[in-house]
Amino acid sequence: AGSNIRSQGAPGHTSCVKPTDSLSVLLHIILSSISVLTVTLNLLVIISISHFRKLHTPTNFLLLSLAVSDFSVGFVWVFMTFLINGCWFLGAGWCIFHSVLGSVATAASIGTVVLISVDRYVAVCDPMHYQTKVTKNRANICIVLCWVGSTVYHTVMFKDNIEHPGGFDSCAGECTVYFPPHAGVMDLIFSFIIPVSIIVVLYVRVFMVAVSQAQAMRSHVTVVTLQSSLKVNRSELKAARALGVVVVVFLMCLTPYYIVLLKTGFGVKSASSFIFVLGLFFFNSLLNPVIYVFLYPWFRKCVKCVFSLQILKSGSSEANIL
Predict the structure, then answer these.
(1) HEC secondary structure over 238-301
(2) Which residues are 172's β-sheet partners?
(3) What is the C-alpha to C-alpha distance for residues 134 and 142, in angstroms, rounded to an integer?
(4) What is the widest separation between alpha-carbon atoms in the chain?
(5) What would the mean pLDDT of 127-131 be, rounded to a whole number?
């Protein structure tokens, strides 16, 4: 997503002048607040899942990957404050770093949401084989491949910019990123069309299974021998509903960004609309840990343990936080 960010300096000037109007100050405060909240909340998720062994499950490892990508996006928000009114004061190297990090983090989050959808599909549609099909090692391998693939893909995309930092700026104080003409189409296909198609298809299947199971339980026609598997399904369905909220919110924040890009032909013609949808896409990184607070009791317990410093006690990692 970050690969389409363009920041234009004031045309005809050799350098930017730092904005001092009240609107710019207000935007700095808002962006800074969002950044701090995003980084803090996702750091709590990272600490919680990393510290407590009871939370070391394939599904939670996927949530950990999502939290790391959201944490990185929150960190990128810090740099976004320097792009208000088109002025960049951190140098060409940091400009490229900010752009690459934002792109890699957002692509990794998209890939992780796809993996979460696959995880819930197997858990709900094939619960008897879930433990053997979805293991910690396989989950970790998929997560690593997701991050490595995202990094390699965007390193290639940013190749010209990495080799010539600042080479595409027309004046001092700009942060302009150049991409080959086909980059926008590839970004649309690999970052939106394919992932969203997989997510929607898998979650529609999960929803259909959930509805059929609910009808079976209401009609009391369940065979006694299937009661144990239904218990598994009930817990997995509860997890699927919680993660379904994460997925739906993610799609709501992601879709407007690509709709605007399609309408403008991958060229930013309306700065205000582009900034809004890009901000909405990044704002999703703040919403994810907020969703956990409401849907996961274990996360609320972990937050209490962190702020009360109980995690510093010996053996705290073995505590039954569930």
Answers:
(1) HHHHHHHHHHHHHHHHHHHHHHHHHHCCCCCCCHHHHHHHHHHHHHHHHHHHHHHHHHCHHHHH
(2) 15
(3) 11
(4) 78
(5) 84
Annotated domain spans of the chain: 2-318
DSSP 190: I
Q: Report how far residue 298's alpha carbon sits from residue 238's, in angstroms, rounded to the nearest whole number.
A: 14
Name the band, by pLDDT with cuts 50, 70 and 90, for residue 83: low
Best CA proximity match to 7, nearest among 174, 257, 183, 162:
174
Helix (H, G, I), strand (E, B) or coil at 56: coil
CATH no. of 2-318: 1.20.1070.10
pTM of the model: 0.81
Which of 248, 260, 259 lies closest to 284 in space, CA to CA? 248
B/e letters for 71-107, b = 16+ CB within 10 Å, e = fewer, are: bbbbbbbebbbbbbebbbeeebeebbbbbbbbbbbbb
Provide the 10 A C-beta neighbour count for residue 43.
17
* pLDDT tens profile 264-311: 655 544 555 666 777 787 888 888 888 887 788 888 888 888 888 888
Scanning the structure block, which residue is given the tokens 């990044």? 282
Report the SS3 class of residue 84: helix
Amino acid at 51: H
